[in-house]
Each structure stands twice: as C-alpha cells, then as structure tokens.
Here is the input.
Amino acid sequence: MPTVLIADDNKQITSILEEYAKKEGHTVYVAFDGREALTLFDKINPDVVLLDVMMPLVDGFEVCREIRKKSLTPIIMITARGEDFERIMGLDIGADDYIVKPFSPPEVMARIRAVLRRMARDSAKGSQVFTYDNLTVNLDEYIVTVGGEHIPLTKKETEILYTLATNKNKVFSRDNLLNSLWGYDYFGDTRTVDSHIKRLRAKLDAAEHPAWEIRTIWGVGYKFEVNSGEE
Here is the structure.
C-alpha cells in the first residue's frame, strides 16, 4: 500500500486530499509545516510527497532541497496560480511535478497514480547506465558525467537526458516526453518540457561535447543528435 506525505498548512486542503488519497488505497500522513514534514519524511519514508510551497517554519523549497540531499522520492509541489517563479524554482531544486492552486483533487490523484506507475516501471528494468562518447548517464544512481566531469542535474533533467540519449537521433515531441516521463496527459502544458530542456542544455554546456548535442527540431520537438555520423 503506497504511502503519501501531504505537507500543507491549509487544513481544509489537507483534509480533502487525505480523504481522496485514502479512497485510492494509500496510507496518508499529514504535516502542517515544513519542519514537521521533514521529521515525518525521515520517519515514514513515503512513496510520494505532496508539498506546498508556502508553509510556516520551513518553506516548501527548503523541504524539497533537504529531501533531495538524501532521497529520490517523487515530490509534487503545490504552487499558487500565476506564480511561474515558484514552479521554475521547484523544478530547479528537484521537484518532479507541480500542481497549481486551485486544483481538482481527482487531478492530484491521477498524478500520484502516474508517478507510482513510473516508479514501478523503472524498478522492473535492469541496470540503466548509458554511455556515448564522453557522456555517461547513470539512471540507477542519477549521476551524469561529461568527459569525466560530474554535471549536477535534477532528477527530471536526468530522466529527459537518458530518454533522448538512449534513442539517438530520434525526435521526441513535447507530448511524447510528457507522456513518457510524467506518465499522464499534462493538460496541454508543454512549457514544462521547454523549461527543463533549457536548463539541461545550460548545465551540459559547462563541458565540451562536440560529438553530440540536444537539438531543437522547430515545430516538432527535441532529439539527441550525434555529430560523428554514428548511429
């Protein structure tokens, strides 16, 4: 039975989400501030975390940072409508997804199901280590190196790079990537893919990689393009 940690200081929201999550068969723990969320996380080791940005004592960003220091547990952040900087910040520090208030509880449950399905698929696979030229992507440990230099990517950035790189020269549309990596219909919001790709490129470009690149195919999507003529 999957365990869900809900961290939000709005008791009405947590009550509704807890009710829906229990109907889905999940074991639910609730925290009303960031400090309590971190304490509960260490105690219960949940399968998924629903994390509000604005919380007392320790905000959601800091909670996410602390969790990412020790765990790859999926984190779905809850942000205020129209606050793009909150979504960008959350993705930058390692959140897997975000929900914008006001939200539909069934939508939140759908996202939790998608995360759990993806986790099950990943655990069923064998070793996931990809190497091409000077690039190594270790999806087992979420470690990426270029020319032996460690590139500090977020969890989702690593997954995007692995998906593109293991399908050299194949073009993925934004919807392809959303369905493959988020595992559900993202309600038409493909901007999150563009944001991830932009940050991923900036980090990879810190090291030389003349034999390959992540290329934009305008009007279509993205691909991992090899420049040496190899397939």
